[in-house]
Predict the 3D structure of the following.
Amino acid sequence: MGRRAALLFLASDALRARAAGQEAITMRQRRRLADLLAWSRRFPLYRRLWAGIPSDAGLEALPPVTKADWVHAFDETVLDPHVRYEALWRHMQDVSRVGEPWLGRYSVCRSSGVSGKKSLFVADQGSMDVCWSLWLTRAWLPWLGPGGAVRLARRGGRVAAMIATNGHYASAALIRRPSPMGSIANARSATLSIHKPVGRIARALAHWRPAAIVGYPTILDQLAVEQLEGRLSLDLVLAVSVSEWVEPAARARIEAAFGCPLRDSYAASESLAIGFECPEGWLHVNADWVVLEPVDESLRPVPPGEASHTTLVTNLANHVQPVVRHDLGDRITVRPEPCSCGTPLPAVRVEGRRNDALVFHHAGRRVALAPLGLITLVGSIPGIAMGSQYVQTDARTLSVRVAFLPGADEAGAWAELERRLRAHLRAHGLPDVDVVRSPIPPRRDPRTGKLIKTWSEVGIHAGAAS
Ligand SMILES: [Zn+2]
């Protein structure tokens, strides 16, 4: 089957499965899961982890894969001898190649890891085609509706994405990847770095006039403020949020400012199309291509209606580096009854991505800093791990609890992080915000065990005084 025929087949299968109802979704999940588990037994990592477990054992009998397993045994997670940790990591040092297929055929991305090494992910063409068909048929088409699709087409189909582009992160890998629709679609999408000042992003958008925007909700919210205050006049059909939890007030502001719906999505390095939001505000999981298991501290299943401790994910589409029962670290709650939107796909709410936007004020302007804008700044600073925490301790202070690697040159690493943070704050029109290194090391939330990366200790109105 040619590439286009394969894409059409996948897209029509996604539409048919959704139309046929829950039974059709479950059947596909069962069949694809059996295929994936049989295939995964050929991989050294799973041969080792699953030794002694009968080959007909169900998914719940298999031990979950930890970040440490994945980082330390990366070369055992693949069969292709060309895919090696060191080679892929070298490729990722070149940020001009974000989204470009690696070795001409693999989509790659990274996420936080352990012991100073990142978790790296490799996806094959087949799984990227699945991802693309799901985003098309279950996200963009229903979100736009027939009227919105026509309006988007009439406006040249231009879509702008505002994300972190300084690393091979999942959102960048997904958005920057060349479209299967060919060069016309590529020319109609633009990516803008969120590390640029919001004024510059707004000017670029005003010049390019996209019909839809995609980005972290905190950035979309900043642009909504620009629009509401008259410095921007975009005419949008749709706004799509990725990667972060959408604060209700931000959602209301974005929808009011642009006069279009905001729709949220759920994706991770392990699977770039876990679920998409419906008009009722629930994320519907693409259960025919991904298995999500909400579990408690002891990894026992958590029933619908209760928040999980964490979530295990199994990606049924990727065969080059099978992801089976990865700990996502997200707390989810499955909706117990069918969703009133009528979608047969299971509906969930996600809490894991709940980092706060930090709101500062300068010269009468409110500036919300996107959590991912801060978190991704540490990028590749030698000696700093991904688990640092950013705390707004008062109206003018950003305190950082830095996660240093063992043996790091702490003073040198901090000087570089401080320099980047100050530049980031200046770029966002906050020259007066002070950056301090906290004497406290990063700490997990004692209740949930989650590492929240950004939060504010300032009362809601305290910042307005400046
Ligand atoms: Zn729904």
User: Anything to note?
Assistant: The two ends are 62 Å apart (CA to CA). The domain at 358-465 is CATH 3.30.300.30 (GMP Synthetase; Chain A, domain 3).
